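Message: Just now I want nothing more than another pair of eyes on a protein record. I am handing you a single protein, as its sequence and its fold in token form. As I understand it, each token names a local backbone shape. Take your time, and here it is.
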Amino acid sequence: MRLHGSALRLTVYVGESDVWRHKPLYHEIVHRAHRAGLAGASVMRGIEGFGASSRIHTTRILSLSEDLPLAIVIVDAPDKVRSFLPQLDELVTEGLVILDEVEVIRYAGRSSGDAFTEPADGTDADGPYGTGAGGRDS
């Protein structure tokens, strides 16, 4: 896939404990983006933050928050990103969804022999929730 020049960055902010049909919401968003043929998706875990509820979530030991902020970031051609938005309407009931115009300078992947791929049966090789390591040994 070639991606260069003008693009849209879709960022979805949700809580780590948000779920969709008993699975982590971020997992469902990433897998739907993959099935939709988008260029890529990354999930970043925040160490502290607050949103519309105004409740601060933090990794500090005294707080022991189990609902840390997550950002799911997807970058692709504007038409592909916009066509994915209706799926987010279904999935994201709490959180924030934003779009930014960006310029892609470089988009390159690994050779196919190094890439992590999911098994053909749709199961996650890292277990039901993945390890966040993309299937690679840490």
Remarks:
- The longest strand covers residues 5-15.
